[in-house]
Amino acid sequence: MPDETNETGAPEAETPEVESSEEAAVEPESGAEPHAEEGVEAGETGLDIGSEAVEDEEALRATPLIRGRVDESGVAMGTGRRKTAVARVRVKSGSGQITINDRSVDEYFPIERDRKMILAPLVATDTVNSMDVWVRVNGGGPTGQTGAVVLGIARALQAGNPELHHQLSEGGFLTRDGRMVERKKYGYKKARRSFQFSKR
Q1: How many alpha carbons lie under 13 Å from residue 154 in its C-beta half-sphere?
Q2: Distance between CA atoms of 141 and 176, rounded to whole angstroms?
Q3: Where do the structural domains in the chain lie, given as residue ranges?
Q4: pLDDT (tens digit, 0 to 9) for every residue of the chain, 200 residues total?
Q5: 3.30.230.10, 1.10.238.10, 3.40.50.1820, 3.40.630.30: CATH of 69-171
Q6: pTM more than 0.70
């Protein structure tokens, strides 16, 4: 095999770049001591990376955001919304009676699934038979009103007893479902449904 030559015709020597990169890899090991000392100094001062973030998280957990309120007579109130329905809920310790728009829950919501959803935050906090609930709900249909009532009950329970925040949050009862009906577009039958297409 002939010697490799560059354009000038001189034989090309082995490139020292490989050796220099190996030397460069060795150099940080010898220079690692100053960095280690800096790390020790930072540790001695008590400043750990992320320590402030941990303290902030603990402070946030200690003070949950309460969206309801309690009036002077001890009645906890909360407002829930879902789609276009709005529910204003009042909760007070009592016998477990639930009244929705001056009717019983069984009469107002004939579908069992809706009734179970409404009772879910009370079941999660073990307050089914110890809280009376009054609800004023308007707008939307049965599903929207059910979701609004559930959120309103959860917020009222949390306002009345902030210690219930963890149980309600674990069940997802304090999360507002922001999904709305997508608007109809011109040229379409509904939001995305096209008109029937006929080739001929």
Answers
A1: 26
A2: 17
A3: 69-171
A4: 555 555 555 555 555 555 544 555 555 555 555 555 555 555 555 555 555 655 666 655 557 788 889 988 999 999 999 999 999 999 999 999 999 999 999 999 999 999 999 999 999 999 999 999 999 999 999 999 999 999 999 999 999 999 999 999 999 999 999 999 999 999 999 999 999 999 98
A5: 3.30.230.10
A6: no
